Fold these 3 entries.
Entry 1:
Amino acid sequence: MDKHISIKRTVITSYLSSMLIILISIHVVIIVVFLNWENRRIKSEINKTSLIVHKELQMVKHLDKNSAIKLINKKIAEFAITQGSQPSLHINLIYENIFFSTESNDSIHDYNKELGKFQYVLNNKNALIIKNLLLKFGDQKVYLQIYSDSDEVKNDTIALMNSLFFSSIFIIMISLGVVRKIDKIIQSPIHEITKTVKKINRHDLSERITIINQNNELGKLSIVINEMIDRLDISFKSQNKFISNASHELRTPLAVIKGYADLLNAGAKSDPVMVDRGIAEILTEVSNMENLLKKLLFLARKENKMLKNNIVPFEISSLIKELMEKQQLIDKDHNYKIIRNKISILNIDKDLILQALRELLKNSSKYTLENREISIDSFHRKKYHYIVIKDQGKGIPKENLKHVFERFYIQDESRNRQKNSFGLGLSTVKDIVELHGGNIYIESEFNKGTTITIELTKPS
């Protein structure tokens, strides 16, 4: 429960943090754009006002000093009145060292500095935009200073920031509601998955997660979990079947060994015939158990990824020739034939490939009548090398073909027990081929024979 809450809080915190960062970034951009726009607007109004002032004072050049002072004083008063409907600008004039201003309490700001250029001046913690001009009317000079009223910009900026602040709170509240709704939608199927998975154990693998939408991430996760459960179910069933079969197979040779040991211990060891027979049977049963344990060890190493492949370049034709010669010696009841044995160097583990081919030949001899032919054909085509083993045995029914490579699968359990089969042979062969990056195929026709093809990639 704590983990669930932690994840939920993490999601909400991350979402809100991202939202705040985005909102702050947007607000900064808006304020910067607004201030830039205000700056341009004020500069434009200053330029317009300077043109108006220049035009209004054109008659100064026709007046004497006293008349000019009266005119300037009158015009400044008129400008002060009209500023009520104009952008908040202030005008200062210097004529004959006399100061005129639209604001009675204003002071002059270096009126002869940076003439004709905009200046940014800090005055009582207020940022002002100032432009100084020199107007000439004949021999008369008038210094003109126009500057902005920072209170208007400041008030507009504060109003904008307040609007952005309250709108952000509104957006965050709505977003919080939305993210809670989304979290609920996401968490609901997760709870369902958790609830279903808790019901699953090795004694009951029948439960499956209900898939609502297989196209989203949770749907795909549910499919993967269901497939995993299917594999576990098959694995447990196979293991249970194998344990049942193996226990039966081990019980029989152990009983035979114990029986002969008891018989010899009871006095039969004085009979040479019984001794020889007992030893032979014991050795046979030990060999059967050794074969079973060897296959189990291979499977254990493979599934625990402990199997070390000594894969090196090896010429395959010599291996096949040697294999068929030995097979003919140990099995004189069948005719072994090599159709083709093309020279080809492959990257293989010699011992594992030899084990796989021996298993296939042994399987073929097991189900092929005496004096029938078992052949092997080894050839390459394009980038692949093929090894084809064909027999004239009893074949496999079509409905069973798809199961022959499954672990612990036994087609005819009663007959295979007698033949010391544990359903691991073809499964082991398939594992060996796949360890080499190859493929294995099987074709069979009932009562006519079986063909198994191994496909291995040739090194480039």
Note: The two ends are 56 Å apart (CA to CA).
Entry 2:
Amino acid sequence: MEEPDSDIVFHANTLMFKFRDFFFPRRKILEEAGIKPGFNVLDYGCGAGSYIPDASEMVGSSGKVYALDINPVAIEMVRQLAYIKQLRNVETILTDYNTGLLGASVDIVLFYDTFHTLKEPQLVMKEIHRILKPEGILSFRDRYLKEEEIMEGVTRKRLFKLKKKGKRTYTFKKDQS
């Protein structure tokens, strides 16, 4: 089972991310992911919710954004963010890997800067594979890993294949074989 960051570490990271997001808006990354109106999107390891407002706007009222994190402080921050910004299509999930979502129900999983922290990454990859629709996309980025580590970690169990390498993210599709 994964362990959440301490509250102090989490709040320090959140402050750092606010500065990052000001200078490097998260929308550019989400555009590369290919989010469209009506999509169901899971932000796996959502943290304080840097991607949530833009993802919510991009999926529109007919879509849904699930914000998942292991840290209760992160989940509460996303709930407050959704309340303040009146994001009615955002739902939070407090868990380490079992999403509780229906199989083949998610169009895109955003998996950003989280993989390197996982103790049992293959459990997470298996769950992501389960919940993604047949043509679903895993949008992946982890600035703490080298490209070889990303490819090995994501494709190891043959659950995913690289679809394309973008400027900011790797796009994987489900391996149907």
Note: Strands lie at 40-44, 64-69, 90-94, 106-112, 132-141, 160-165, 170-174.
Entry 3:
Amino acid sequence: MSIVKGPQAFPRAEFLRRLTAVKAEMDRLEVDTLIVGNSSDITYLTGYTAKSGYVPQAVVLSLVDEEPTFILRRQDAPAALHQTFMDRGKIIGYSEALIGNPDKDGFDAVIDFVNEPGAANRGVGVQLGALSARSAEKFRSRLPKARIVDCTHSVAWIRMIKSDLEISTMREAAAIADAGVLKACEVIRPGVREADVVAEVAAQLARGANGKAGTDFAPMYFCSSPRTGTSHIQWSEDVIREGSQINLEIAGVRHGYVSAIMRTFSVGRPSDRLRRLHDAEVSGLEAALGAVRPGATCSDVANAFYRTLEKSGFQKDSRCGYAIGIDWSEPTASLKDGDITELRPNMTFHLMVGNWIEEDFGYVISETFRVTESGCEVLTKSPRKLFEL
């Protein structure tokens, strides 16, 4: 029986392009089979975005097959049928007997598939860094004749350079993030509960922008006075008060692709200290963006920010950004001193210059940008101002 698939995020040809790039890397590593278990990499290779990665699942690529095979929990297989470009025969649901089983799990189903008669085992690539020690040992012990190659970030490095379709999707996500900032400006008021503000912003992120709906929620951080020295806490049950400061970090999401943004809000007149920090951070952010060009390194961009910030008497201890794409951050490159990753066109980054100076004082601003042939394109468009409400 065939299944009627809904509209796909990307055409089949886009996924085949991605698979070709990954297979070229497999060939370079002398790997016949690649087992991909990272959820973001699975999204990249198939279009699958359902939240089933809390149990073992994997996409298995072979150099001899055009399409990969997706092995996942049986009850999640219908989601793969609907969301991916792949034929039904390439989606295998494993038995519920492997769930909550102390002796076997879904990775045993993956290994059974790889061990089928006739399978070529010149080399098997496994994302060992994403596995528990027990699961990694299982792959080694149950594939004794294979040369196991650690391919933890092999797909992630390929993901860093986006296609034009991916960039278009991230532009859509950025517009959604900007709409969320605008909504926050409308609803942050004295006497309003933080939870109610976040509910309105979340609704906007779901509704989307420019006719494009948000297709998921990324983590949302709403750090208000006296908690502005924190970076990753959510909203509270408090009521917003006159004089409150709010540091907001949100993102728009389209088909797994994330564009993030951070902005700071002041309910009433901000302090002189906050104004000075804002001015210094914006100058540093703009200096960093000015340093973006093909051939520059992540370190070059970061140090342009740090040098400018220090001229104003402030310092930032943490990195000032990271590669972004599917599922918020990509694990391959950071905008920090010493990261010599070379920038190339259509790489995308979250230039995140949030600065947490004391336990009860911090400030945030950020942009999502892409590297162009001659500089950068900032995808998020919200004003770079300290929002006074």
Note: The first strand starts at residue 33 and ends at 36.
